[in-house]
Inverse folding.
């Protein structure tokens, strides 16, 4: 008799062995690993499961046999099985708008965007970006400083900060504090980037065929004179106190309360609702058109907002994710936010605008970095 999967790693093993079946589900908008009937507003409930995101549910009796999602999936050897859960998803085409913030949060965002001159250092959450000349004209980019870090390779004391690859661009891109009330100031140059890793290199023991994890991380080496202004003291939160150890041999991650400070939405609270969400693969349609099997691409954390408003919005890319501890001065670093808005993956509880983030400890290890 098959044993029920009880950990995130075991769920990943079951999903890997059922890749073809899951990829063939008509209308599927991705899968993730979590708990059945999880509600973002409360505690995790139900058993460990493989979540399948669908645009709508149809009565089981009305579905043709080949369109029904099995209630359980098993590994190829039949030794391990996992329940499935269908979560309804919605995708809106509403235009991007600036979020409405509380007066306190608006004041925080103004400081992070260097509008009021109150910051005395370059903190996590601060706005970074710049501009480049392209054939179409001037292309601007803006994002958020995630964490202050240093390189651990024997090249001397190279200090800088982490943000997203889609903010930091390629190696040698100049990064600035974009001018608001002052002239733009160059704070560093992108030194190295990471975009994808094979799943077996990212998660030991999991080796799904043609599967990758999107990391979307960039290390920006700080300008001389700027490095001294870098420290992991998060405005309105306090100092970062080390790294959170993600345990994939349990389900402890699901339901973990988190928070972040970003240049668009400021300080927001959330909860990890799933792990290993399958994100869109830019080459999938082309691969299918030419008759090739597309790669599956995943991300580590799927985060839902707690309370009113979204957890993140455009411009928050690169924000550091912190575990929302009981003591605001002992917050551990969990991840690096890289996207998700405006995916609008709705749940039966009404939660939408889920955020993607990547495991910070894995990023630091693979990029030979450490927190300052």
């Amino acid at each position: 008799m098959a044993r029920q999967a009880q950990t995130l790693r075991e769920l990943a093993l079951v999903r890997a062995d059922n890749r073809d079946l899951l990829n063939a589900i008509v209308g599927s908008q991705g899968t993730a690993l979590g708990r059945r009937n999880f509600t973002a507003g409360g505690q995790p409930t139900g058993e460990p499961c493989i979540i399948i995101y669908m645009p709508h549910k149809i009565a089981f009796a009305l579905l043709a046999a080949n369109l029904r999602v099995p209630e359980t999936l098993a590994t190829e050897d039949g030794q391990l099985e996992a329940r499935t859960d269908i979560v309804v998803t919605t995708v809106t085409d509403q235009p991007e708008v600036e979020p409405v913030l509380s007066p306190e949060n608006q004041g925080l965002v103004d400081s992070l965007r260097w509008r009021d001159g109150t910051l005395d250092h370059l903190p996590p959450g601060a706005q970074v970006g710049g501009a480049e000349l392209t054939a179409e004209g001037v292309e601007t980019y803006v994002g958020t400083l995630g964490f202050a870090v240093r390189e651990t390779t024997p090249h001397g004391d190279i200090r800088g900060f982490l943000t997203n690859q889609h903010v930091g661009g390629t190696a040698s891109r100049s990064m600035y504090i974009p001018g608001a009330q002052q002239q733009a100031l160059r704070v560093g140059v992108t030194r190295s980037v990471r975009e994808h890793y094979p799943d077996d290199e990212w998660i030991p023991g999991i080796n799904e065929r043609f599967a990758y994890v999107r990391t979307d991380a960039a290390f920006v080496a700080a300008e001389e004179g700027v490095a001294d202004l870098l420290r992991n003291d998060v405005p309105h939160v306090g100092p970062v106190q080390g790294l959170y150890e993600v345990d994939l041999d349990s389900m402890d991650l699901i339901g973990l309360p988190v928070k972040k400070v970003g240049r668009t939405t400021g300080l927001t609270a959330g909860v990890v609702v799933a792990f290993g969400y399958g994100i869109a693969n830019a080459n999938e349609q082309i691969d299918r058109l030419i008759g090739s099997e597309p790669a599956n691409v995943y991300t580590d954390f799927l985060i839902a907002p707690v309370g009113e408003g979204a957890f993140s919005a455009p411009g928050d890319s690169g924000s550091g994710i912190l575990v929302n501890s009981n003591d605001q001065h002992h917050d551990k670093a969990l991840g690096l936010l890289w996207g998700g808005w405006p995916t609008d993956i709705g749940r039966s509880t009404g939660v939408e605008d889920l955020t993607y983030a990547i495991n910070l400890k894995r990023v630091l290890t693979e990029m030979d970095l450490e927190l300052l």
